[in-house]
Amino acid sequence: MATAETDARIVDGYHVLLSEDLRLAHAAVLEYADAHNDDYWPKGRDVIRFARFYRVSRSALGGLVGLLPYRLGRRTVWVDAARSPEVARRVRMETFAREALVSFGIFCAAAATLDRESATVH
């Protein structure tokens, strides 16, 4: 189980490990989803579109929003690891690209930090 200090160090990696273009694509895809998707969350097609536009890795961008892609034959399948973690475990984490897992780790640490802060009485 990660601690608050560990999560904070991982979240700090957002600016160190990820390129400026990837961070811009991340912000843009979140803004787009907020404005255009019923659930306000990016879909696989959104990740593909913004990754192409910003010329960044689909896997890395997907990981930042909890979507992990993998190849199944000729198709790319997107697993919503944030909202359905049991599916990601069934597929096995080794199936996903390392860059997706790095981004997903940052996503999970940020989510844990937000959960902890929202549970704190100020």
Quick one: biggest sheet? 2 strands, antiparallel
Domain count, please report it.
1
Task: Using the CA coordinates, give the radius of gyration.
Answer: 14 Å
Q: How many beta strands in the DSSP annotation?
A: 2
* First-residue to last-residue Cα separation: 25 Å
Strand order of the largest sheet: 1-2
Poorly predicted sequence stretches spanning 5 or more consecutive residues: none
Helix content: 55-70%
Class by alpha and beta content: mainly alpha
Order of helices and strands: HHHHEEHH
Task: Provide tags for this entry.
globular, 2 strands, mainly alpha, 122 residues, 63% helix
Give a description of the structure.
With 122 residues, this protein is mainly alpha-helical. It has one domain. Helix content is 63%, strand content 10%. Strands 1-2 form a two-stranded antiparallel ribbon. The mean pLDDT is 88.
Reconstruct the topology from this structure:
Layout: H1 4-17, H2 20-36, H3 44-54, H4 58-64, E1 67-72, E2 75-80, H5 85-91, H6 98-118
Antiparallel strand pairs: 1-2
Helix pairs in contact: 1-6, 2-3, 4-6
Summarize the model shown:
With 122 residues, the protein is mainly alpha-helical.
